[in-house]
């Protein structure tokens, strides 16, 4: 689906004005006069100089400023020659983009689209603008720029890719629902079998990121048999069957074991935290007991209050550590899936083909 070649025509926009030889020779003098005027104005309005208190100096200085301003003005300042070449402008923007100076690249691409709105590379420039926003982690602006392409162009190579990039921007913002909805819209409007299969495949991986294994499997099964081998679905399905091997801890059990200080942490394999929780709570309990035993009821009450806080923290920390344990192991499983089976979609700088890269272990 990504085989369309993008061609362009070289265009030149010129705005020419005649400039006399005298005007060109006059400009250095005008610059010098303006510099003198700048220094003089600073002296004029500096309150620390006693010279400004003299009446004659005030009158003379005002006249001097007026004369300098009149002399420095010349109609020739407005005379200039502006030449903007489409190829040079586009190449200049590409230079910034290739050097990862994305904000400067955005300005130059926008300049290109403004001066050459009929150039065949405008769509590429608009895509580069959106891509630069995305690479700069300005995802909201990137989404708006990609959507501008979708409004102006329909069913082109770049517009189809823009749909996928909008979804990618939502993913980087952890907006999984919006990413899925965008891809589902693409599935509804396109008739390209390969495009639909890629959208199904991407939605499946979004559900994997959400640890929704069965929903992911449903969308992987929607990929046509013609592209099943390309997306390595058989291997991916076998890897998904291993989800039951993910080691997990029960948060409720961790909280119950935490009745004995530190036991919940030991259950979630956080042994150092378990030792600290045990000895700290034991020390506070012993200190409270000794205080009450010696008749220091006020001190005993304070220590008991503090001890209850640490005891409750021990229970909460045990439950939280169980959730963290589960998330960490789930994420490790997802990362292994990516390394072993996921296809990475990428484009080269010339925008003339899509590259598929595979990662898998034997």
Helical content stands at 55-70%
Order of helices and strands: EHHEHHHHHHHHHHHHHEE
Radius of gyration: 35 Å
Could you tell me the strand content as a percent range?
Answer: under 5%
The strands making up the biggest β-sheet line up spatially as 1-2
Topology summary:
Blueprint lengths: L11 E4 L5 H24 L10 H18 L9 E4 H13 L3 H14 L6 H14 L3 H14 L4 H16 L3 H14 L3 H17 L3 H9 L11 H8 L10 H7 L5 H5 L3 H23 L3 H45 L1 E5 L6 E5 L4
Antiparallel strand pairs: 1-2, 3-4
Helix pairs in contact: 1-2, 3-4, 4-5, 5-6, 5-7, 6-7, 7-8, 8-9, 9-10, 12-15, 14-15
Attribute tags:
mainly alpha, two-stranded antiparallel sheet, disordered N terminus, disordered C terminus
Explain what you see:
This protein is 67% helix and 5% strand. With 362 residues, it is mainly alpha-helical. The protein starts with 11 loop residues before the first strand and ends with a strand.
Kindly summarize this structure in a few lines.
With 362 residues, the protein is mostly helical. Helix content is 67%, strand content 5%. It is built from 15 helices and four strands.
